[in-house]
Amino acid sequence: MISFYPGPSKVYDKIPEFLSDAYTEGVMSINHRSKECMSMVEQTIKLFKEKLEVPKDYEIYFISSATECWEILAESFDGISYHFYNGSFGEKWFNATKKLKPQTIGYQFDFNKELKLGELDLSMEKGIICLTHNETSIGARVTNKRIGKIRKKYPDHLIAIDATSSMAGDYLKFEVGDIWYASVQKCFGLPAGLAVMVCSPQAVKQAEISANNLHYNSLTSIIQNMKKFQTTHTPNILGIYLLNRVLGEIKPITNISANLKKRAKNIAELIDSKKEVSLLIQNDKVRSDTVLVIKGKSSTIEHIKEKARNNEMILGNGYGSWKNETFRIANFPAITNKEIEKLTQFLTKNLT
Ligand SMILES: *Cc1c(COP(=O)(O)O)cnc(C)c1O
Fold first, then answer.
1. Could you tell me the distance, in angstroms and rounded to a whole number, from the CA of residue 160 to the centre of ligand 1?
2. What's the whole-model pTM score?
3. HEC secondary structure over 268-303
4. 3 lines ligand 1 (CB under 6 A)
């Protein structure tokens, strides 16, 4: 079976080998405050920055999930949180923040259009602008260029970006944002249970000014611990080790994203040539390269998913309000070009 599910998704083919190495090397039993662990964390961060082109002055933190990050952000910064969303994950983030900070503001925008700067009407001079880089539920994204424009217009706000289904697949221009985060069970091709947060110097400074350390996972505590390459709690050491090994193997992000873009274009053209299905996101400027969402009658969708299963392939179910009328394809780096080819041949043959 090949899984094209957009999370948890196919892991890199070398994971079994890395797991076995982790056991032999004793990684599963090392203490998280030991020298070995600290140096492993340090090296992982170094590799992370190299492979994903993260600016040198940005910091990397390890947490458990993207959902945890929603809570960390809500608890760690003063000021109003402004959420711009067009799908389920962005909306969930908004709702999670609103529970903790009732004055949180949410704006919904058209998923077939770019987020317009005119739509941003921020009442306060400070605060956090929250965006979903890659909306996994519908396969839409906000471009680096658009985020750059928001940065220019609002230089004093922090910009927080959920890049869970694009980081390590799509090229991210980290300079234009302050807090980028992702869980590793999507484009990193790793098992779930670990997430990364990439923070700008401005985000670190703001967190330190807010000085909220009421919670075990408050950002100020996370920052303090990471100065020694440690975490507030015993982290997912095995997950960090696997991340380290995967980062050691993968190509630089510009190569990875160029390959995914080509594959996404092929799939999009194939779907465009079919009558019974269409791309949910018609505007290619805001269409994701890492998650493709295909729309059709629910009977068509049901049928193609079942047929795929019979051909040893798992297509992702639709999500949220699009559950029955769409299926999703993860175009993640751990899926090989050959596997994508097998999928496109299948779709060519079985869709009219
Ligand atoms: C998968 C996903 C999440 C949730 O990730 P968890 O690891 O379950 O917390 C959040 N946001 C986006 C955009 C996602 O794709």
1. 14
2. 0.97
3. HHHHHCCCCEEECCCCCCCECCCEEEEEECHHHHHH
4. no
314: left (phi over 0), alpha (psi -120 to 50) or beta: beta
217 lines ligand 1 (CB under 6 A): no
* Cα 91 to middle of ligand 1, angstroms: 12
Q: Is 170 in the pocket of ligand 1 (CB under 6 A)?
A: no
Intra-chain end-to-end CA distance of the chain, in Å:
24
Task: Give the Cα separation of 119 and 191 in Å (integer).
Answer: 38
Ligand 1, closest atom to CA 66?
9
Question: CB atoms < 10 A from the CB of 303, how many?
Answer: 15
- Our CA angle for 134, 140, 141, nearest 5°, is 50
CA distances from 201 to 38, 56, 168, 198 (A): 22, 10, 21, 10
Residue nearest to atom 3 of ligand 1 (CA): 66
pLDDT band at residue 144 using 50, 70 and 90 as cut-offs = very high
Band the pLDDT of 121: cuts 50, 70, 90: confident
Kindly give the number of the ligand 1 atom that is closest to the alpha carbon of 64: 7
